[in-house]
Amino acid sequence: MTRKMTGAKMIVQALIDQGVDTVFGYPGGAVLPIYDEVFQQNSIKHVLVRHEQGAVHAAEGYARSTGKPGVVLVTSGPGATNAVTGLTDALLDSIPLVVLTGQVPTFMIGSDAFQEADTVGITRPCTKHNWLVKETDKLAGVLHEAFHVATSGRPGPVLVDIPKDVQFASGQYEPKKPSISHYQPPLKGDMEAITELVAAMETAKRPVFYTGGGVINSGPAASQLLRELVEATGFPITSTLMGLGCYPASGDKWLGMLGMHGLYEANMAMHDCDLMINIGARFDDRITGVVDMFSPKSKKAHIDIDPSSINKIIRVDIPIVGDVGHVLEDLLRVWKSRGRKTNAEGVAKWWKKIDEWRSIDCLKFEQKGKIIKPQHALARLEALTKKYDRYICTEVGQHQMWAAQYLNFEDPNRWMTSGGLGTMGYGFPASIGVQMAHPDALVINVAGEASWLMNMQEMGTAMQYGLPVKQFILNNERLGMVRQWQELLHGERYSQSWSESLPDFVKLADAFGAKGILCSDPDDLDDAIMEMLTYDGPVIFDCLVEKHENCFPMIPSGKAHNDMMLAGVDTQGVIDAKGSVLV
Amino acid sequence: MSALKIKKGSTSHSAYNLRPNFSDVIERHTLAVLVENEPGVLARVIGLFSGRGYNIDSLTVAEVDHTGHLSRITIVTSGTPQVIEQIKAQLGRIVPVHEVHDLTVEGPCVERELAMFKVNGTGDKRVEALRLADIFRANVVDSTLQTFVFEITGAPEKIDAFAELMRPLGLTDVARTGVAALSRGD
Q: What is the ipTM of this complex?
């Protein structure tokens, strides 16, 4: 049942057939035929961003908060090159995106035509896969395959580059059908390996679940199974930055985030455990610290859908390649069928040890005086927004780590942050994408003033679509994380890490027609936050905070998990020459 | 030739467990990669090696199945066992890659390379070049009064040996195809 239509119409038709409701984009010469089709339909909402990077991050926010692929439509040349940062971000955080780019007509490719760039060449290393479609007859098939590749196996961004003459020409439209391509990553894990893991779980004295973004990417069922597994076994659980929300922060088995700025108890448990069960995490360098000293006494299991994640950084004893949800289902079934055994005595002793670490209370801080501590601002934000249907985005830096530490996530898909790439400027456009997907929810972007300025043009987008996104800026007039590293590593020489000539954020909000709130007094903080929450529209909240606050706990570069710096320690000379070359 | 289970959906009983990991010994491996012959596929493979800092000692590619549009890329690479395993896993996740075979661990394999040598010389040297070419079963595919072009096929070591012998006899140009390899037996 194929129909003849133009390439441009096929694109819109394919998006409709794929269940796409929202596209983030920016028009230009090489996508005009597609925009003409967008104009003549009502099934798909198009969100006009103010910069193509914003479109990709918005689509990432949409994807992370819904579990569906985000869709982007941009023009050739600069439209495509502006999308590169977002593509790389999505690749490192395994976010499914389908990015459509216009291209100069096929007969002009290679001639250095106006707004020509070798888009598939440029984006080859920053996409999961990409295509240049030179025949209209093949367009629909490629588009459907693009959605299949973006969402199958380890999710990721894909790009389809479509020359303008292919958009104008007519061809046969192929409707969506189950993919017949060879690319079908299996979901089930090896039963023998799963049984081996169960056996290890039955005897482990000091087990820990180390979970990551793979749990969230696997879908809500995976989080549900994980919760069941944790409750049934009584094992402690920690998570990477990307995995926050897969297990509720209010759960009593929750140790908090691990890693460079993770919680003391989480990192100590990772270091001292005898069985580490990695579920959908990838032993990132923010997690492991120096690898030769990483969790020296443990047997390690690793569940990951991507075979290349296994043994890439840390050698594991029980590798299980498969989808987290499918593997956990089998794991639970096998564990139950073997009599639901754990080493209860050993695990109880382990919890005693963990409780000792917890009693250090590594996140404690004291709010005194007339200057707002950033931790306090987030603790108040947490307290006042707890009861809301809430989604949190962040930019990148100290505020991001504080948000991960002081905000609590009860459910998956509620936390949108740039983990792998660490893209400043991610959070604001991401919050727009989240709000588009969840119009009635409370969407807050916890930001630093420097990150926020990187994509502040998207205020126009927020205003145009009436998106009541709350921009909660912890303003320390510094590139806080850069400043912290300069303090730790470079003799307090704060090279270029001051935010000079900052705008008046209240006036800036006003200029866009949004609401601006300035808060500098801890006594005003609660009222100011409530004012932000009750205002029906976008808000820029300029929260002036302590300028020289450092983010702790911290595993200094070149150190192991059990060698953490806690708040209030002397920061000089803790990182040696070998550690200082690490980022 | 049985496929390594490293490709898409391999589990604990895949290549990971074949040899001790994280040894510092540099090994030389010959990989056969079957790929869909679509535009840019070679760039994806090469980009993977350059982007992740892996070595390519030799690479050959040609379409081997015209109806199925499958190409076979033969790559000779070197690295520690852990790096070799990573290379195979990374190759396996490239979307148009169908199969990755590590011929070095799958069993004995035959490796062959074709090379052409231009040797410029007269008198005794010219006679000696021709005599050695005969010993090495190299063919003369072009001849002038001054030069020969020899064509030789063999394992890379044989070609290296022939090149060494030709050097003092007036070797001026070398063209080598890189390794093509197949596993022995079934």
A: 0.92
